[in-house]
Each structure stands twice: as C-alpha cells, then as structure tokens.
Amino acid sequence: MSADKKNSQVKEQRLREKLLPEIEEFKASRSSLQLATKNAAGVPNASYAPFALADDGFYILVSELARHGTNLKESSEVSVMLVEDESEAKTIFARKRLTFDAHASIVDRDTQVFTKGVAALSARFGEMIDNLSVLKDFNLFKLTPHHGLYVKGFGQAFSLTGSELLDVDWKRDGHHGGAPKVEAEIAESA
C-alpha cells in the first residue's frame, strides 16, 4: 500500500471518529424531522413528524388523514431532513442539517417491531404516543436511510453511505468546484 493511500485512509478514519459522534448528537438534539413525500401520481408534499431513533432506523407515527400519511402508504421512497433551528444557527444561509433518502415501511401492529417503535416514541414523547398508537388511523412507519448528507457549515458537507450511513466522504467540490481554502482548513480542524 502506498504512503499516500495509507495517509488518506488515516485521514478518513479521523474524520469518521470526529463526525459520527457529532452526527449522533445532532440527531438526538432534534425532536422532529422534515418529510418530502409524494403520492401515487408523483405530486410532492412537504411536512414534518416527531420521530424516535432506534438501532434499526427512525420511527414516526402518522395519521392516514394527513396527506403525508397517505403518501407514505402509496410511495415508500421519502426524503428526510433534520435541520438546526433558525435561532441556533450562526447564519441562516448555512444551517446545520442532515438529509437522507430513505425507504418507509409500514409496521404491522401485532409485531415486536411495532412494540419497539412505539416504545421508542413513547420514551421520547410520553403519554401522547400511547394514546395515538391505539387509534386505527395512525400507522407506525420505520424509515430506513440508504444515503445521506451532513452539512455543518459553508464548505463542510459530508456524504454518508454504507450500512447505517457510517461511511463518510467530505464533499470538497460542493456544487461548483473546490471549497475555499479557509473553509477547507476549518473543516479539516473540525
């Protein structure tokens, strides 16, 4: 193995060791996620839902009466975003955010997965979940991410891939070429 390749692997490992705990902390600090769903005809809808994170994905409890509840039943592909609150952001133009493409699957009520998902939501949101989960128009969905992007500021976008989104790649080229030197140095020291 060449010295350059080994050096690159060491840098990637250090990046993972710094970023993954930060991403986990960010996910834990958010209570709701933004959803981009579409119906069977492909008409998009933006919405949100409170969520709980478990070891096998994100769980949301959604009413069929809500447009996104119907959409998730019609189309299992969903885009999700967890975003820093405007009041917490250093700048409105670069709010910290985690976006990912996911597969949404409805969880059957008489399963251990349903019990697990409701328990995770209940631990986070209390009695309201216990009350909603018994209503027949509410469905539990498990969102399983398959590709993500974590943005922590200007020039600091990181692609997340692999099982459980644990493979991190710094998107140095952004949308229009390389990251400015100052921002690259900030990201390297992050």
Task: Map the helices and strands.
Layout: H1 3-29, E1 32-38, E2 44-50, E3 52-54, E4 57-63, H2 67-74, E5 77-83, E6 97-106, H3 112-125, H4 127-133, E7 138-151, E8 157-161, E9 167-170, H5 181-189
Antiparallel strand pairs: 1-2, 1-5, 3-4, 4-7, 5-6, 6-7, 7-8, 8-9
Helix pairs in contact: 3-4
What does this structure look like?
The protein has helices at residues 3-29, 67-74, 112-125, 127-133, 181-189, and strands spanning 32-38, 44-50, 52-54, 57-63, 77-83, 97-106, 138-151, 157-161, 167-170. By secondary structure, it is an alpha+beta fold. The protein has a single domain, classed as Pnp Oxidase, Chain A, CATH 2.30.110. Strand 1 (32-38) and strand 2 form a beta hairpin. Keywords: Oxidoreductase. This is Putative heme iron utilization protein.
Keywords, separated by commas or semicolons:
single chain; 190 residues; alpha+beta; Pnp Oxidase, Chain A; 9-stranded antiparallel beta sheet; 5 helices; 9 strands; elongated; disordered C terminus; Pyridox_Oxase_N; Putative heme iron utilization protein
What CATH architecture do you see?
Answer: Roll
- Strand fraction equals 25-35%
Q: Spans of 5+ residues with little confidence (pLDDT < 50)?
A: 175-190
Helicity, in percent?
25-40%
| Rg over CA atoms | 19 Å
Helical segment tally?
5
Number of strands: 9
Corresponding CATH superfamily: Electron Transport, Fmn-binding Protein, Chain A
What is the level 1 CATH name?
Mainly Beta
CATH fold group: Pnp Oxidase, Chain A
What structural class results from the helix and strand content?
alpha+beta
Largest beta sheet, briefly?
9 strands, antiparallel
Helix-strand pattern: HEEEEHEEHHEEEH
**Terminal CA distance:** 28 Å
The overall number of domains is 1
On the 0-100 scale, what is the average pLDDT? 85
Shape: elongated
Domain Pyridoxamine 5'-phosphate oxidase N-terminal: 20-151
GO cellular component, one term: cytosol
InterPro entries: F420H2_bilvrd_red/Heme_oxyg, HutZ, Pyridox_Oxase_N, Split_barrel_FMN-bd
Organism: Shewanella violacea (strain JCM 10179 / CIP 106290 / LMG 19151 / DSS12)
